[in-house]
């Protein structure tokens, strides 16, 4: 009757049981989880087709929370109705039923297994079938919750993710704030600008947006980090309900995300701090996703975000639940710190080639293309090639772009986090510093007059052969340190981070995807330190010589190479058995009585009273 009324096909889940389940029930034996799992999985796959064809009515004894999880694992939109009746009434109806394999004796075991659904409309079955159908139809009609997923913030990332989700058949609602006269109807304009993409409902009122989402609601915020996130959460709290999930997909500081998860837990809200990489194109076509925080929250959003994630070389989604607390945003922070290093190395090698060696831009492009084809390719290298070939009015566009680089937080946070956890992170510090120096444009201009550099002529022939090795080595060290930060913090916080999975998650969709990242995903399966990995030993040995040579030549030529020199210094430092830190410690003791340990007995500190005569 309901099927007719709703104009949708009807399916009875009982018809999908395999023969062995039917035979078991016929014998009066209750099914267990092992019997039911493949059956529910089959149903959840069928539901994808049903949804694509406009929907269906399914009757199913989805008794447990976990069973319902399986049913929704493909992220289809489901309106749940719980048909409630007492045991005697159900038994009576079962007895009247003809030609069904299930004996009444199994009913009590079913009711024992039943875990009441929290997010379903309960319909009493002690009414006429007509009334039951009427109740369901009226609930469907009055139900304003029509979308499976909501996104707040229709900027670069939010709008691209919204279009991506909608194209994967996820019904979504989108919301953007209104600033009278400045930002109006932003969400509506997005929908109007993309008539080819169906299934997006725009809102400019937060309450209506939240009401449009089916429960448990899944709300992704794509807004700037900081207090704005707290303010948005505070506004949402007025409208959301227990069991809903709030996801922060922005570049928030991971310690803030851990606090927000704790805070929202108090309201029964699941909070997921999710790193997202890929910029506009990645978000639109397949980003790399690094969720962390509430595992229950991740469980609920997983089927949806899996649909939009980029795919690694083996076709697996670039999506990895990294760990609890702020682990997702921590991993995104480190991702960005590697990104800072990668970009700065590209800038340094380009500057050295152009200014130090006097190589033309078209030759630099050819060289970079060659490196790409020889296994040093990356998304950022491709982007650099695009930039180095972009012209405006017959001139290289790059030459018309002001040499001032901004930053929005993650790099600086990574520097302070590395210092807090005792991880040497000189290349990142150098990359952040290089951007800071770039902002002092006026001072740089005037100082370049005061200190004009007399660059030494470099023998191109000698240095050209070392360039690629130097580039590779700086990148290798940059990655080594990023992952060492992940290892250190992950261990200290007991997050159980998986380096190989994290690298895998960055092999596509991510700004730092590269051939190297694909290799590292394999290397991290057997080693958690690149410098100690036998696979990379030869490369470290050879390329470190090239890097030293290029950095030396670069400095001689008067070109700053902060990240590349930090990288070779890191490598030298970490492979120096006997360093000069003893002098530093002795000095500390000399002026500050900080004490020192002796090489033949490091168990305790000693202090020398009189280092200096006066
Ligand atoms: N761009 C990128 O490559 C990436 C960005 N991110 C992160 O994703 C988040 C969004 O970035 P992106 O889309 O680039 O940023 P945009 O600046 O393009 O968009 C920001 C969005 O946030 C909204 N917003 C701004 N202030 C407020 C506020 N006070 N209250 C509510 N909404 C507000 C804006 O609305 P309005 O239009 O009205 O101002 C806009 O919709 C940031 O945290 C960013 O760091 C993460 C990965 C990549
Ligand atoms: O997260 C990103 C890419 O992965 C964003 O583009 C972010 O803005 C980059 O950081 P910054 O603005 O500090 O350069």
What does this entry look like structurally?
The protein has 614 residues and is of the alpha/beta class. The protein folds into four domains: 2-142, P-loop containing nucleotide triphosphate hydrolases (Rossmann fold, 3-Layer(aba) Sandwich); 149-325, Rossmann fold, CATH 3.40.50; 332-574, N-(1-d-carboxylethyl)-l-norvaline Dehydrogenase, domain 2 (Orthogonal Bundle), CATH 1.10.1040; 578-614, Single alpha-helices involved in coiled-coils or other helix-helix interfaces (Up-down Bundle). Helix content is 53%, strand content 10%. The chain contains 26 helices and 15 strands. The strands form five sheets. It has a seven-stranded mixed β-sheet, with helices on both faces. It starts with a helix and ends in an 8-residue tail after the last strand. It binds NADPH dihydro-nicotinamide-adenine-dinucleotide phosphate (NDP) and ribulose-5-phosphate (5RP). The site of NADPH dihydro-nicotinamide-adenine-dinucleotide phosphate (NDP) has 23 residues, from helix 8, helix 11 and strand 10.
Short summary:
The chain is of the alpha/beta class and 614 residues long. The protein contains 26 helices and 15 strands.
CATH superfamily (homologous) name of the largest domain: N-(1-d-carboxylethyl)-l-norvaline Dehydrogenase, domain 2
- The separation of the N and C termini measures 102 Å
CATH topology of the largest domain: N-(1-d-carboxylethyl)-l-norvaline Dehydrogenase, domain 2
Measured as a percent range, the helix fraction is 40-55%
Q: What would the principal axes of the Cα set say about the shape?
A: elongated
What is the CATH class designation of the largest domain?
Answer: Mainly Alpha
**Count of DSSP strands:** 15
CATH architecture of the largest domain: Orthogonal Bundle
From the helix content, strand content and strand pairing, which structural class follows?
alpha/beta
* Overall average residue pLDDT: 96
Query: How much of the residues is beta strand, in percent?
Result: 5-15%
Task: Count helical runs.
Answer: 26
Any ligands, ions or cofactors bound here, and which? NADPH dihydro-nicotinamide-adenine-dinucleotide phosphate, ribulose-5-phosphate
User: How many domains would you count in the coordinates?
Assistant: 4
Uncertain spans, ≥5 residues at pLDDT below 50?
none
Rounded radius of gyration (Å): 30 Å
Report on the biggest sheet: 7 strands, mixed
Strand arrangement, largest sheet?
7-6-5-8-9-10-11
